[in-house]
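Q: I'm a student working through a structural biology exercise. My instructor gave each of us a protein and asked us to get a predicted structure, then write a short paragraph describing it. Mine is Helix-turn-helix transcriptional regulator. I'm not confident about reading structure output yet, so if you can add a plain explanation after the C-alpha cells, that would really help. Here is the sequence I was given:
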Amino acid sequence: MAEGELQRVVGTNLLRIRREMKLSQERLANDVLGLSTRYVAGIEAGRHNMTLRSVERLAEALGVDPIELLK
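A: Happy to help. First, here is the predicted structure for Helix-turn-helix transcriptional regulator. I'll explain a few features afterward.
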C-alpha cells in the first residue's frame, strides 16, 4: 500500500457513507461530528492523517463499524 493510501481510503469511505446517509458535508461536520466543515472536507480528500482512536470516534458518530471506514 502506498504512503497516504489509507488516508484516502478513509476519506472515500466517509464520503460514501455520508452520501448514503443523505447528509451534507456541513450537517455531518457541525451536527453529527462537532467538527468544522473544512476539517471534514480534508478527511474526505485524504489530507488528514487520523489516529486510530479518531477513526473509532468517527465510526461511532456515524453508527458504523470502524472497519467500514478502513476497507
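A: Here are two points you could use in your paragraph. The chain is about 70% helix and 0% strand. The two ends are 13 Å apart (CA to CA). It's a good idea to check both against the output above yourself.
Q: Great, thank you!
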